[in-house]
Amino acid sequence: MERRDIVQRGLFFEEFDESARYLHRPGRTLTEADNVLFTTLTMNTQSLHLDAAWSAGQPFGERLVNSMLTLSTLVGMSVAQLTQGTIVANLGFEKIAFPAPVHHGDTLYGETVVTAKRLSASRPGQGIVTLEHTGRNQDGEIVATAVRASLVWCEGAMP
Questions:
Q1: 5-43: per-residue pLDDT in tens?
Q2: Which of 72, 155, 156, 157 could form a disulfide with 12 if both were Cys (CB 3.0 to 4.6 A apart)?
Q3: Cis peptide before 26 (omega within 30 of 0)
Q4: d(C-alpha 106, C-alpha 130), whole Å
């Protein structure tokens, strides 16, 4: 039997559904090692992420996961389902918020809704999709939100 190949990809412009909520699974448990590695790789010397003794005397009583790691993980969780191989470019982020802290050992779950989409006026065969990402911890508490504008290929237009 001859089989056809199917390659994992994200969605083309036409496939983004404004009535859907895309749940990104599996979740990702963020560990102390993840936090220290990300924080040092990005040269963020904030004591709140690196210094356990100092952080013990702060309002949360312990180190917190770097919010940029939380944001990066949240957006990264959406890639395979939404934009893998179909994105042209990220156009920008706005309305980024961290309403609750992420602690070592918390598991992040992501979800995305499409809040707008339109064909590009200047780039034929491409469209702009506005994605609202929400990150929740294992208890369902919202820990991160962000709105992202992405330029994606239309079906049949990708080289």
A1: 888 899 999 999 999 999 999 999 999 999 999 999 999
A2: 155
A3: yes
A4: 28
pTM equals 0.93
DSSP assignment of 64-121 = ---HHHHHHHHHHHHHHHHTTTTEEEEEEEEEEE-SS---TT-EEEEEEEEEEEEE-S
Per DSSP, what are the bridge partners of residue 107?
29
Beta bridge partners of 150: 90, 129
| Farthest-apart Cα atoms in the chain, separation | 66
User: In degrees rounded to 5, what are phi and psi of residue 27?
Assistant: -75, 175
Q: Say what the pLDDT of residue 121 is.
A: 96
CA dihedral of 38, 148, 129, 16, whole degrees rounded to 10: 60
Architecture of the domain spanning 13-31+67-153: Roll (3.10)
pLDDT digits (tens, 9 = 90+) for 38-88: 999 999 999 999 999 999 999 999 999 999 999 999 999 999 999 999 999
3-state DSSP assignment of residue 155 = coil
B/e letters for 17-26, b = 16+ CB within 10 Å, e = fewer, are eeeeebebee
Distance CA 74, CA 3 (A): 35
